[in-house]
Amino acid sequence: MKDMEKLYKSIAPRLTNWLVSSGSQYDEACDIVQNTFLKIWKMRDDVRDDASSVSGLAFTIARNLRKNLVRDNSRLTFVGDIRDSDDGIGGETESPTVGMTAHLDALPQQRETSQSDTEYLRKRLLEAFAKLPPILRDAYTMFQVGEMSVRDIANQTGVSENLVKVRIFRAKEKLKVILADLHVTF
After folding, report:
1. How many CB atoms lie within 10 A of CB 81?
2. CATH topology of domain 113-182
3. CA distances from 184 to 123, 144, 152, 179 (A)
4. Structure confidence at residue 84 (pLDDT)
5. Fewer CB within 10 A of the terminal residue: the chain, N end or C end?
6. Residue-wise pLDDT tens digits, 120-174
7. How many CB atoms lie within 10 A of CB 36?
8. How far apart are CA 160 and CA 139, in angstroms?
């Protein structure tokens, strides 16, 4: 490989975005990307010197590293946010989507999005992606977030280009249903 730095600069941001959209934390995604390119560097004599083959290899290695990390961490127990069941005054609680939906309807008129809005939207997107079957989620995130072509996804996953298109379409349709209350377009 002649220009590893150029390849890294073109692939690493897409790979990081894909990992984050697949549920990894940003720091974890950065570590996976680094380890991915270390593996590619070690294999540099055996890899074809074109961007598409390196891109496919990078996404495959990163996916496997992420699977290994998830498997290794599956034995650990993480405690989420601990909240009282009584978050409101006077003993009444409100569904988190009730207050946020009204607030989200006002977002297009605002110039800035608050941190809590961003966190809520990120949480909803991650939950929506988690509800997708893995084959649909992988195809959609490789295409949309990883900016891979349908042909590259087909080559990497070993299925036809038409099947990749179908998976991307089905993922979009399922996301529209899951996130219908947000009025999101895909």
Report:
1. 4
2. Arc Repressor Mutant, subunit A (1.10.10)
3. 15, 15, 27, 7
4. 47
5. C
6. 888 888 888 889 999 999 899 889 888 889 998 999 889 999 999 999 999 999 9
7. 25
8. 12
